[in-house]
Amino acid sequence: MQIIFAIPEWFSYEKNMDQKSFTSVTPDEFKDILFSALRSVYKFERLEVLEFGLTLQQIYLLKFLKREGPVTIGKIAEEMEMKIFSATRLVDQLVEKGLILKKRYQSDKRNVFARLSRHGERMVGQIETHAVSSIMKNMDGFDAEEVAAILFVCTKLNTILNGS
Length: 164
Description:
The protein is of the alpha+beta class. Helix content is 61%, strand content 13%. The strands form two sheets. The chain has a three-stranded antiparallel β-sheet.
């Protein structure tokens, strides 16, 4: 059986997945672990969609705008890897909900900028508070080493998944 990961000896994590102690991971086990993580993220995000009545794309865009401030529709399209007409439609949906404002600035009349409205800022705050509260509740009982391991992996996800 091919092993793709050997867990280093210094890794002292004694707890295990489904009561199975592991010191190495086969390709099939790794695929199952990845799918399990994907399923967990999907179900978590699905709960946000149901709770707040927005799509995943809409929630992502609101969170992006919170962090980036006013940006052009082109920048939104680039970030979300979609055509400009799709980004425009997405922004327009959130304008209709009162969550985003669009504006053309005198200094740059060619571009339309989008930013969060006050209602949008409150909505992002509610979404993020809900997410953090849910995660913290679910992590109740984790020891400091487990929390540190989770935070470490979270800081490395972009590199792990996208190579950057």
